[in-house]
Amino acid sequence: MKKIIHTGIAGFGLSGQAFHAPLLDLHEGFRIRKVVERKTDKSKVLYPYVEIVRDFNEILADKQIELVVICTPNTLHYPMVRECLLAGKHVVVEKPFMNTSADADEIIRLAQSKKKNVFVYHNRRWDGDFLTIQKINKSGVLGYIEYYEAHFDRYNPVRKRAAWRDEDLPGSGVLYDLGPHLIDQALVLFGKPDSVEADIQTQRNGSKADDYFRITLNYPKRKIVLTAGMLVSDPGPRYIIHGIKGSFIKYGIDPQEAALRKGKSPEGDGWGQESPEFWGLITIDYDDLNFDGRIETEPGNYMAFYDNVYDVLVIGAEIDVKTEDARDVIRIIELAFESNKSKKIIKLN
Fold first, then answer.
1. Fewest CB within 10 A of the end CB: N or C in the chain?
2. Residue 90, CA atoms < 13 Å, CB-side half-sphere
3. Pair 133, 113 in one domain
4. Where residue 290 falls among pLDDT bands split at 50, 70, 90?
5. How far is CA 279 from CA 136, 178, 236, 316, in A?
6. Residue 265 and residue 238 share a domain
7. Tens of pLDDT along 215-244?
């Protein structure tokens, strides 16, 4: 009989509802046992078998629960992950891993001492477009990549007063919200940079946290530009990649998030497949022959994250998203804020 990992979810906002519960419910290796909801009963409506609890301590005290998924505001990541580890639980934590690299280092040490695993939900590693870019990069078809630009643009011109991400709090703002995705992808492709330069702004009227950033990661012979903003009503390319042999330009965004937000189950042959109109355009110059055409986007697969969680816990597989990698993401965010404040390029220690 397949081992079942009894799981608790702390928080049932957008993250819990769209990105975690549907995957855990569908995966045959997990069973959602308890969900912490402070005021609502949404999880019980969607998954009648779960037990709603109002106190996080009820999850910590449940000896059957092996894994806790933290889907709470960023300010709670450190204390709740720490409590889970002290209670002998494995943890999945939403990005950003922590609000500071010092907190991240402490959690890494604690997890090692308790012999428990912390999994950071960098789900955008399994976006179809990024899977396609990894495939292109591995193939070498573009040659050495000199320039890489990635966008995560949205149009939300009015600050949402009820949204904690828009408040003046640790871990709030678009850099902590969307930056981890773009930074993590860049580190997966190219490793750690030599230095960081950043322009971080608050552009919307009444905004209390940053809502625009442009980060440049400098390598010896490569430049990476990562940017996100909330005033982009007509987005341009999501990815722009130039190598010595050619270029790759990609519009559109992975369809999984939109489908999950609509309540669709992450399964079936068509799951994660992108419409051909959004397939990336590749242009290659090889031996005086020019090729210009579309590259079919790989199907996205967020379930791969929980497949890896299960394999790590059951058969001791290697963790795909290592906590050290997630810590490096937070360190780069810290250096980006330092660069923006000092108006200088900051070298990576």
1. N
2. 18
3. no
4. confident
5. 13, 23, 14, 36
6. yes
7. 999 999 999 999 999 999 999 999 999 999
Residues 94, 196, single domain; the answer is no
Global pTM?
A: 0.95
Tokens describing residue 51: 């037990």
Euclidean distance between CA atoms 311 and 315, whole angstroms:
5
Task: Write down the residue that tokens 């009015």 correspond to.
Answer: 158
- Tell me the CATH number at 47: 3.40.50.720
Asked whether residue 321 is assigned to any structural domain, the reply reads no
Structure tokens at 113: 């001492």
Q: Which amino acid type is present at position 169?
A: L
Tell me the C-alpha to C-alpha distance, in Å, between residue 185 and each of 11, 86, 150, 245, 293.
Answer: 26, 31, 9, 22, 24
Distances (CA, A) of 208 to 76, 161, 166, 284: 19, 10, 6, 45
Q: Is the peptide bond before 96 cis (omega within 30 degrees of 0)?
A: yes
CB 93 within 8 Å of CB 11: no
What does the DSSP 8-state code read for residue 122?
Answer: -
Contacts of 302 (CB under 8 A, 6+ apart): 19, 23, 123, 126, 256, 260, 266, 272
What band does 205 get if pLDDT is binned at 50, 70 and 90?
Answer: confident
CB-CB contact of 209 with 173 (8 Å): yes
Q: What is the C-alpha R_g of the chain?
A: 20
What is the Cα–Cα distance from 6 to 65, expressed in whole angstroms?
Answer: 5
pLDDT tens figures, 156-165: 888 776 577 7
Query: In this structure, what token pair is assigned to residue 147?
Result: 């320039």
Q: Per the structure block, which two tokens stand in for 140? A: 């070498």
Distance in angstroms between the alpha carbons of the first and the last residue of the chain: 48
- Give the tens place of pLDDT for each residue, 248-264: 999 999 999 999 999 99
